[in-house]
Specification:
Helices cover 76% and strands 0% of the residues. The protein is an all-alpha fold and 243 residues long. The longest helix has 29 residues. The radius of gyration is 19 Å and the shape is globular.
C-alpha cells in the first residue's frame, strides 16, 4: 500500500506541475494526435505522455529499441500469471500496469526513431494480445472455478473482439477507435483493481478477490458491448467508403 501511496503522490504532484507549466489553451484537446476516446479524458492522456517524457529521452539515449519494450510487455504479462496464481493481487496488478507502460513506450520509441512500420505494428499488437491473454489466464487460475471463471472467459473473449473488430475494420479501410472499454481502460481497471482489492474487499468484510471479480464482470460487459458497437459502426461506415 505504501508503494501505491507513493506513486499516487508522485502522480498528483506531477499533474499539478503539468497544469501550472503548460499553456492553458487546448490542454484538454487531443494533443497526442492519436484520436479515439479515453474515459479519463484527453487531459489525463496528454499529462501521461508529458510525464513519461524523461523516460522516453533516457531510452533514446540508451538506444533501446521498440522490440526491447515489446518483450517487456510479454515478460510483465507472464509475471502476472505467477502472481495471480499465488494470490498476490497487488504484485499482479503492478505487472499489468507495467505491461501497459511498456506497450506505450514501444510505440513512443518507434515513432521517435523513425522505425514505424507495418511489421512493427503487427508485432506490437500481437504481443499485446499475448500479454493480455496471460493476465486473464492468471486471473482464471486465481479464481479456480465458478461464475468468476466464466466472467474471465467472457472478458478475455470480449477484449480480443474489441481488437479484432478494429483490425478487421482497418483492413476494409475504416478506422474505428470508438468504445469505452479499450486496452488502456482494461489495463487501468485490472491493474488498479488488483492492487486495491485486498484492502477494499477487507473493508467490506469480503474475501480477497471480491473487488476483482466485480471488475472482471464490468470488463466482460464493457468489452462485449464495445465489440458489438464497433461491429455496427464499422458495417455502417464501410457502406459509405468509396470503392
Amino acid at each position: 500500500m505504501a508503494t501505491l501511496a507513493g506513486a499516487l503522490t508522485l502522480i498528483l504532484a506531477s499533474m499539478l506541475v503539468y497544469r501550472v507549466t503548460q499553456s492553458s489553451g487546448g490542454v484538454s484537446a487531443d494533443l497526442t494526435g492519436r484520436g479515439g476516446s479515453f474515459f479519463l479524458g484527453f487531459w489525463v492522456r496528454n499529462w501521461f505522455y508529458w510525464f513519461i517524457g524523461p523516460i522516453k529521452r533516457l531510452s533514446l539515449a540508451l538506444r533501446l529499441t521498440p522490440l526491447f519494450y515489446n518483450l517487456l510487455v510479454v515478460a510483465f504479462g507472464l509475471a502476472s500469471i505467477v502472481f495471480f496464481y499465488r494470490g498476490n493481487l497487488p504484485a499482479a496488478g503492478w505487472m499489468v500496469l507495467l505491461s501497459g507502460f511498456a506497450d506505450v513506450m514501444d510505440g513512443e520509441i518507434a515513432r521517435a526513431r523513425g522505425l514505424v512500420s507495418q511489421a512493427g505494428a503487427f508485432i506490437d499488437s500481437t504481443l499485446d494480445r499475448f500479454s493480455e491473454l496471460a493476465a486473464f489466464v492468471g486471473i482464471a487460475a486465481f479464481f479456480g472455478e465458478g461464475m468468476a471463471v466464466l466472467a474471465v472467459i467472457v472478458a478475455l473473449g470480449g477484449s480480443l473482439l474489441v481488437s479484432y473488430t478494429r483490425a478487421r475494420g482497418e483492413s476494409l479501410g475504416v478506422l474505428c477507435k470508438t468504445g469505452l472499454m479499450q486496452r488502456a481502460e482494461r489495463i487501468i481497471i485490472l491493474g488498479l483493481g488488483s492492487i486495491l482489492d485486498p484492502w477494499i474487499s477487507a473493508a467490506f468484510g469480503r474475501e480477497t478477490g471480491f473487488v476483482l471479480k466485480i471488475l472482471v464482470i464490468v470488463i466482460a460487459v464493457g468489452t462485449v458491448g464495445t465489440a458489438v458497437y464497433r461491429t455496427f459502426w464499422i458495417a455502417r461506415s464501410w457502406t459509405n467508403v468509396p470503392p
